Structure formats: structure tokens, C-alpha cells
Amino acid sequence: MYIPKFLRFASHDMAIDLGTVNTVVYVRDKGIVLNEPSVVAIETRNGVKRVKVVGNDAKLMMGKTPDDIQAIRPMRDGVIADIDVAEQMIKFFIDKALGGPATLPRRHEVVVCVPSGSTSVERRAIRDAASNAGASRVFLIEEPMAAAIGAGLPVTEPIGAMVVDIGGGTTEVAVLSLRGLAYSNSVRVGGDKLDDAITSFIRRKHNLMIGEATAERIKHTIGSAMTPEGPGTSMQVRGRDLMTGRPTEITITQSEIAEAIAEPVTQIVWAVRKALEHTAPELAADIVDQGIVLTGGGALLGHIDEVIAAATGLPVVVAEDALICVARGAGLALEDPAYKGVLTLA
Q1: Same domain, 197 and 252
Q2: Binding site members
Q3: What is the pLDDT of residues 228-264, one digit of tens each?
Q4: How many angstroms separate the CA atoms of 154 and 178, rounded?
Q5: Is the pLDDT of residue 141 over 50?
Q6: 338 lies in which domain range?
Q7: 3-state DSSP call for residue 161?
């Protein structure tokens, strides 16, 4: 029997990787349907704030907004920093993932990924934001578990597997076995810290002020965790000269960027080595055979796999589709009964 569209009662369960830099949404039986920046542009008029744009459109406005518009990133270090803006962002992404705002209430269960080191207060904020955005029930999954499932690691078997998820705000290092985290460590170092290090280095060495988008572009273009022989590749960078105040263009080399990001890269390597030191011998033996799998946007940093391999003496591989492993893993945990037990009702 045909039911008119306006009378249909939609039901779409989904998983959300609510990242510091990007939000990725996986809808049951559809897979990844949305991947956009975790940015909201807020317009203030007569003292009243309202959301102007969200996601891709909002990111384009960062650093270029007039006085009455502010581009905000409501997530920081993998957790919610501005709950009101986060709620509006989540609601926008849920509606967009499901084809637009509903004329009737939707019922959907939502799985949200959380850093393994997040506090109960931070987890409650994520639950409340998702509930207020329209979720009928909210489940949480720890990011390293989701990353491991998304990368295809055997997390349901009695085999030790190690994943390093390098996100925008945090790096999650975990050893997994039998649907549980045998060890996990979360450090608040990720892509944002790499960008900050690049910005600070260029300001200090070249007296040039660059924006967030420029630092990110430098990282993606010539970023390297390993110092090259000689200067390496180079690129032109534009910014504001701090001495004259004028727009200026300079040349930045790959070796300079490797120097700039050396400290945050060292912190990531330290977190990996710490995890190995705290891993039970039998699980450590499995990791020697299986190696370490890298996920997240930071896994795409040039030579990061080689640096970690050199520091640990273990094989290191970057997962296929590393950017979406967490969301894909959370979605599979939602769909597949084999992963029952990895979700927690918030």
C-alpha cells in the first residue's frame, strides 16, 4: 500500500565520528553518507546569535568573516568545547545525512565515537548533544575500537591487535583483543597540534603570520615526520609580514616543516612506545606478527609510518581509507551482531 510521503515515519540508525576537524556520518545499510568539517558559522545581529552555515560552507569562511559572523569549531581535543553550537551542528549533519529536515519526528539510534581517555563529564556532554539533536537512543563506542573494526582488525578473536588513530585533536593508541581494550592511551596531540607547530615555526623563523587553512595546506603538501636529505621539496606560502604589516610570499622547505612538527611527532611516537611497554607478553607477541595499523587523518602525514616503525622495530601500515576508519567501524558495530558488546548505552 502506498503511504504518502508526508505520513511516512522515518527510522534511520547511524554512527557519527564527531571529530575535532571533520564529522563523518555512517547510516545503517548505506555506509558513509557525509564527511564535512566540524565548523559552524554563527551570525550575531542585535545581540541574537543564529547559525548561518555549517560544514564545508562554514570552513570556507574561517579567517575571512566580517565582525558579525564568527566561524567556530565546537570540538576541541576530540570532545565538545561548546555544547550549544555542537548540538546545532550535530542536528544539521543528521538532517543532511537523512536527506533534509523531517516533517514528522524521526526515531533513530545514534552511535557516537568518543576518545578512550575522555572523562564522564565529556561523555555526558556528547550524549546530551546527540539526544538534544534528535537521537532517540545514544550509544558510545571508544574511538580506537571503532578504528580497529573499520581497519579490519580481528578484534573479536583472541589475538592481540594494535591500532594508532591519529585524529585532529587526539591520538588514540590501543591494544585490542576479544572485543575489548587490553590497553589504551589517549594523548591530546593530533593534526591541530601539527598545524599549530607549523604556524608558530613560520612566525618565529620568518616573521610571517599565516592562517589556519594555510598551515593545514602546508602540512598536506610538504608535511613530513622524517627529515629529508637536504631541503626536500618546497612550496610558496603567503601571509602577513609581522614587521611591515604587508602581504608577503616566502618559500618553505620540507626540511623546515619536519623541524617544525618534530615535537608533536615525538609525542605520538612516545605514546606508541608506552603502549608497547604496558602490553601483556602474549599480546605483544601477536603484535610482532600482526604489526601496527595507523588510522585517522594524521596517518597520512608523510613518513609517519616509517618513523614509528624505526622507533618500535615493528611493521607499521596505514589502513585503507584511513580518514573514515572510525566512522566505518562504528557503523559496522551498529549493524553486525558479531560486535555486540563494544557499544555502551549512554
Answers
A1: yes
A2: 168-170, 216-219, 297-300
A3: 998 899 999 999 999 999 999 999 999 999 999 999 9
A4: 8
A5: yes
A6: 1-38+74-152+321-346
A7: strand
Q: What is the pTM of this model?
A: 0.91
All three cell numbers of 316? 607499521
* 44 strand-pairing partners: 49
In the block, residue with C-alpha cell 592481540: 160
Annotated binding site for ATP: 168-170, 216-219, 297-300
Q: pLDDT higher for 340 or 256? A: 256
Pairing of strands 344-345, 316-318: unpaired
Give Cα 232 distance to the centre of its chain.
28
Dihedral pair phi/psi, residue 169, rounded to 5°: -110, -25
Q: Which of 271, 41, 260 is nearest to 166 (CA)?
A: 271
Please tell me the distance from the alpha carbon of residue 313 to that of residue 153, in angstroms, as a whole number. 20
Query: Is there a contact between 223 and 261 (Cβ–Cβ < 8 Å)?
Result: yes
Q: 95 with 17, same domain?
A: yes
Tell me how far the alpha carbon of residue 197 is from its chain's centroid: 18
Clarify whether residues 235 and 303 are in a common domain: no
